[in-house]
Amino acid sequence: MDRAGSGRHDKQLRKRGSRVSHSGRGKRRLTNFHVHLVGAEGTALGTNFDTVAEQLGAIPRLHLELDGSFVWVGEGWQIDGMLYDRDNRLRYVDLKGNCPLSVWQQLASFCAETRSSAFVVHLPDGGLYDLQSFERFTWP
């Protein structure tokens, strides 16, 4: 996996692909993405699966299945996700869709122990980015 943070990798992240949809004047900018939320340097997130599932299950308009799949829908946006675990520890979260930055940040905060321990694997190319860099360039 490539590791990119800031500086010279900015253009590379933009080229790799999150598409920005403009909803018209004064509307939020939504970005389509398909990523894996992972732990530091691509390792497991390490959070407790049951705790994350409980937190996600309490969010309005988020439907969570027992197998870890979920969909979270808002006005003009949707995230489809899947929690992957082993031994009740969250390994990674597959996320696909589009949403405002505040929604993304809420979701990431439930899944990762800390913001600094979370990384994003951008699919399909496998580029590895720290959370802050991914957010900065996905929601400019």
Topology, pairings included?
Elements: E1 3-4, H1 10-16, E2 19-22, E3 29-38, H2 49-57, E4 62-64, E5 69-74, E6 77-86, E7 89-98, H3 101-111, E8 119-122, E9 127-130, H4 131-138
Please provide a written account of the structure:
Strands 1, 2, 3, 4, 5, 6, 7, 8 and 9 form a 9-stranded mixed β-sheet that branches. This protein has a single domain (about 5-20, about 30-140), classed as TATA-Binding Protein, CATH 3.30.310. The protein is built from 4 helices and 9 strands; from the N terminus they run E-H-E-E-H-E-E-E-E-H-E-E-H. The chain is α+β, with helices and mostly antiparallel strands and about 140 residues long.
Number of strands: 9
How many H/I helices?
4
Tell me the distance between the termini. Answer: 24 Å
Q: The CATH topology is what?
A: TATA-Binding Protein
Name the poorly predicted regions.
6-10, 16-26
Encode the helix/strand succession as letters: EHEEHEEEEHEEH
- Helical proportion? 25-40%
